[in-house]
Automatic annotation (TrEMBL), chains A, B:
Keywords: Decarboxylase, Lyase, Pyrimidine biosynthesis
Alphabetical list of InterPro entries matching this protein: Aldolase_TIM, OMPdecase_AS, OMPdecase_type-2, OMPdeCOase_dom, RibuloseP-bd_barrel
Positions of the catalytic residues: 106 (proton donor)
Record-level Gene Ontology MF annotations: orotidine-5'-phosphate decarboxylase activity
Enzymatic reactions: orotidine 5'-phosphate + H(+) = UMP + CO2
Enzyme class: lyase
Domain of life: Bacteria
PROSITE patterns: OMPDECASE
Pathway, per record: Pyrimidine metabolism; UMP biosynthesis via de novo pathway; UMP from orotate: step 2/2
Gene: pyrF
Name of the protein in its database record: Orotidine 5'-phosphate decarboxylase
Length: 309, 309
């Protein structure tokens, strides 16, 4: 029933937003990254240390006004295991600040393998009488191309540990239609995937009418967003593509239900690079991130009035 | 043009097989794992050290008779970043022994993010004038649900660094048909995905007629395997599902072309747990893995005669 904690965070902050923690060295001001890059011989180790410190400062600047963060695994894997360590530590830090953490990994595989991904990202590892949390996120993005086998092991962990998943339904990228918009009988592939989300979530309903199985639906496709909101009444949406990818607040309006719930909207680049766009002192990069997060909150509030349970 | 190196390895060893390095603590004999689990306070660190030592001994036992290994990322992520470090070190060790390494990550995302995955798994990372290889695999498994945007960044790295990818087309699991077998017009979803592989690989053909874009097609669906071999003449297949999942050598026969090329068949559990099935001394676990790999080679040779370029 995990998405309930996300929903409660949205109501508490009156902000249906998630900040994507997708760092690259380009986004990080020189004063912060240069000492780390100079300190370590291995460029991945230096960059990973810079990523972690940068993330912590962004989290410190937004945790009271934004309910969730979404670190994108790819940007950490780009620094090898050293980057993955920074990902684990970022997740732990955000959770320590009370944020809901969506690990954006889009994992997918056969059942036995998905069991390993489920315990990696949402569960625990135990050996020799000791337990540990490998990644420790609250929710994981996943791909449903393999069908029910690849989803069922996640649902077990979601039930046991109050976690959630978001399944790719209609993605925000320009070529998403190549496969997702194809018509199979009377439904498109993305509609069929959305219907599967309703099926998979069916027995895992939370207090507010939404299940532990959410869907990823891009802000760049406003019509499909509205259509899917009506079609999938128990499926909470994670909406990427706002801002840098071209999605607008007006286009997102259809993603919300009459309580202002039903969706959490992601912004990554616009928040992380706000200091560049503002042209402020680079030492104020986290302040600029907070100002952009507040601007986004106002922008969303204009189309999505008082949020209530 | 990366799959050429895989093809040459298959011809050299006369063995179209890849061993899946998917360790779990259950597979590892007590004499090998117990000291590591006792040595480290963190159970993930102890297990990761055991995974790495286990993998090295398996690799030592098979590298002269099997051309490739396929570590499955999920089993390493299940041990957090400590496990991911063991994955990176396993890849480096296998490459040092001359093996072709397929990182089984089934990664997928929008273009900008896929660029990060491409450099993580097949490319390099550079900062402050220094370069490093984050994971260092030769090929990566990927999911094509997001269409061309999610594949194009991989192809750039494949061209620059002689690497390859395998796109999920028809997976080996029981529920793969829920999405993949649906009919869109005159084609099933998996046929459409297969056709996309031919398109994506079109400009990236190697010396032996196969492109850098391979496809994952399960041994558990023999009819589709044969049908796709004819339909996708330039697409090399990675065939999971042999052995433990129920696929037989006879069922795989249709995956090969008239030269005995066209597919590489994966076995994970049967090789890794051969010592249990044999009931041999646990200290001979790597010897048992080699005997099972030789048995599999013979089994495949019965349906796939002398392999030549």
């Amino acid at each position: 029933m995990s998405l309930d904690r996300l929903i409660e965070g949205i109501v508490r902050t009156q902000n249906p937003a998630v900040v994507g923690l997708d760092p690259t060295l380009d986004y990080i001001p020189g004063f912060l990254k240069e000492p780390f890059l100079a300190e370590f011989d291995d460029p991945m180790e230096g960059a990973a240390a810079a990523f972690l410190e940068y993330n912590k400062r962004i989290i410190d600047a937004i945790y009271d006004i934004v309910p969730a963060v979404k670190p994108q695994a790819a940007y950490y894997e780009a620094l090898g295991w050293q980057g993955v360590r920074a990902l684990c530590e970022t997740i732990r830090y955000a959770k320590g600040k009370g944020m809901f953490v969506i690990t954006d990994g889009k994992r997918n595989d056969i059942g036995s393998t998905m069991k390993a991904y489920a315990s990696a990202h949402l569960g625990t590892f135990g050996a020799a009488g000791k337990q540990a949390e490998p990644f420790g996120g609250d929710a994981l993005t996943v791909n449903g191309y393999l069908g029910t086998d690849g989803i069922a092991p996640l649902l077990e962990v979601c039930d046991e540990r109050d976690r959630g998943i978001f399944v790719l339904v209609k993605t925000s990228n320009p070529s998403s239609g190549e496969v997702q918009d194809k018509l199979c009988g009377e439904r498109t592939v993305y509609q069929m995937m959305g219907d599967l989300c309703e099926t998979w979530g069916g027995e895992h309903l939370g207090k507010y009418g939404y299940s532990a199985v959410g869907a990823v639906v891009g802000a760049t496709y406003p019509e499909q967003l509205q259509e899917l909101r009506l079609r999938l009444p128990h499926t909470f949406f994670l909406v990427p593509g706002y801002g840098a990818q071209g999605g607008s607040a007006a286009g997102i309006a259809g993603a919300f239900d009459e309580r202002g719930l039903g969706a959490v909207v992601n912004s990554s680049r616009a928040v992380l690079t706000a200091w560049k766009k503002e042209g402020c002192d680079e030492r104020d990069f986290a302040g600029a991130a907070r100002r952009e997060a507040l601007r986004m909150k106002e922008d969303l509030a204009a189309v999505n009035k008082a949020i209530h349970i």
